[in-house]
Amino acid sequence: MATLLHLDSAVFPQGSASRDVTAAFVEAWREQHPDGTVVHRDLAADPLPHLDAGATAAGADDPLRRELADELAAADAVLIGAPMYNFTIPSTLKAWLDQVIIVGHNAGPDSPVAGTPVTVVASRGGSYAPGTPREDFEFVQNYLEKVFAGMFSTEVDFIVPELTLAHSQPSMAELIPLAEASRAQALDDARAKAKALATRLAA
To answer: Domain Flavodoxin-like fold: where (predicted)?
Structure first.
């Protein structure tokens, strides 16, 4: 049985684009692999402490860091909801990363999580795609790809629902059709990715 580690970090439990897409992913995963396991951490509802000097010095001997590292190592696939806040990831997700990245234990060329498929739902209120005016302000995909591919040697895939503020910002009203298309595409991509991964890992 395959295990999916599912992390959500959006502040709002309802009305969150990233949570809606990760929920669609998990639903499709369970349908395709009903005997699988889903381990869910809601980093907004139950935030982790920031890394301090004691935990840094202890490394993998720190109980919390060891628990998080073991949880990551036990996962056959990882799903992360990472909305863009102030051009980057939520502080709660950064706290998880700081706790779970232990150089010499699970980060580096011989990482025990190397090859693990990681799917990141990187939602954002506007668009930061290549060629857009705010392309240079994109620090979610750029950062997380470097962390997961560079430090953990995992397979990283991004699903990007964008323009999520179009319905609430009058200045973006003309972008509503594009926002709805982006959301629909993200939901379709999440379901397809989940089914493909569940099938692959259950084989």
So the answer is: 3-161
Q: Where are the chain's structural domains?
A: 3-202
- In which element (H, E) is residue 164 found? none
pLDDT number for residue 80: 98
State in Å, rounded, how far the first CA of the chain is from the last one: 9
pLDDT of residue 110: 87
Q: With beta carbons less than 8 A apart as the criterion, state whether 115 and 153 touch.
A: yes
- Model pLDDT, residue 1: 86
Burial degree of 150 (CB within 10 A; 0-12, 13-18, 19+)? exposed
Exposed, middle or buried, 35 (CB in 10 Å: 0-12/13-18/19+)? exposed
For the domain made up of 3-202, the CATH class stated in words is: alpha beta
Contact by Cβ (8 Å): 75, 112: no
Q: Are 195 and 30 in contact (CB under 8 A)?
A: no
Binding residues: 16-18, 84-87, 123-126
Q: Identify any residues that bridge with 12 across adjacent strands, giving them in sequence order.
A: none
Q: Which residues are annotated as a binding site for FMN?
A: 16-18, 84-87, 123-126
Question: What confidence tens digit (pLDDT) does each residue in 44-70 have?
Answer: 999 999 999 999 999 999 999 999 999
Q: How many CA atoms lie within 13 A of 180 on its CB side?
A: 6
Question: Which amino acid would we find at residue 58?
Answer: A
pLDDT at residue 203, as a whole number: 74
